[in-house]
């Protein structure tokens, strides 16, 4: 299941007192101990806890938990979930972001019979956005892709998610394919844009 990139416009900005200015971030592979944190970050990124649908939030979080539990405990070849962890000055750690990378095979998106690494479920806790967490996760995925022997990355972004598109373009992604406009007409949702990045050695930091 793919939950897509976070949409900052759906959430209130963090207050000044909640800004994690004293934190340092590191990216590592997820472990089963991270499941609750992953489920919470993704649920908060893609589902509101306010209003009429607030009652569904615990159910959504549980579904995400079970979804990731299956993938972490039964990992497929060339699949990895990364997490960004913030460490405060007192040593306390908090999971603040996550992303998945896995190798796919598709005749529709890319050349026939060509496997490629694909990113999904990039999400950052609302209070930790605009602190470089998403960029660190994406750059880490570039390193993973190269370690697997690939020099290309692909991901989808919703057309209306301008802030996400701006981030991807800043990091060197380019539009590769736009989904059929019929999806927008019949499904009443924003079009999806498939983005592509060719990785070069000097883009890895």
Account of the 3D structure:
The chain is of the alpha+beta class. It has a single domain (8-203), classed as 3-Layer(aba) Sandwich (Aminopeptidase). It is built from five helices and seven strands, in the order βααβββαβαβαβ. Strands 1-2-3-4-5-7-6 form a seven-stranded mixed beta sheet. α1 (35-46) packs across α2 (57-73). The chain is globular. Residues 4-19 have low confidence and may be disordered.
What is the percent of helical residues?
A: 25-40%
What sort of overall outline do the alpha carbons produce when their principal axes are compared?
A: globular
SSE-based structural type: alpha+beta
Count of spatially separate domains: 1
Estimate the mean pLDDT confidence: 82
Main sheet characteristics: 7 strands, mixed
Q: Ranges with pLDDT <50 over ≥5 residues?
A: 4-19
Q: Tell me, what is the CATH class? A: Alpha Beta
The total beta strand count reads: 7
């Amino acid at each position: 299941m793919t939950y897509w990139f976070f949409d900052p416009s759906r959430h209130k900005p963090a207050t000044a007192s909640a800004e994690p200015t004293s934190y340092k971030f590191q990216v590592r592979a997820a472990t089963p101990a991270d499941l609750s944190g992953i489920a919470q970050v993704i649920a908060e990124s893609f589902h509101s806890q306010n209003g009429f649908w607030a009652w569904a939030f615990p159910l959504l979080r549980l579904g995400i938990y079970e979804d990731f539990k299956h993938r972490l405990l039964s990992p497929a070849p060339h699949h990895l979930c990364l997490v960004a962890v913030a460490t405060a000055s007192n040593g306390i750690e908090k999971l603040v972001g996550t992303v998945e990378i896995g190798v796919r095979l598709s005749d529709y998106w890319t050349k026939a019979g060509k496997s490629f690494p694909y990113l999904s479920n990039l999400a950052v806790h609302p209070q930790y956005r605009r602190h470089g967490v998403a960029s660190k996760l994406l750059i880490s995925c570039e390193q993973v892709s190269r370690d697997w022997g690939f020099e290309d990355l692909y991901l989808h972004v919703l057309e209306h998610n301008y802030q996400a598109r701006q981030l991807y373009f800043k990091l060197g992604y380019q539009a590769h394919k736009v989904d059929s406009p019929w999806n927008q007409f019949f499904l009443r949702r924003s079009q999806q844009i498939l983005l592509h990045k060719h990785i070069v050695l000097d883009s890895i930091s």
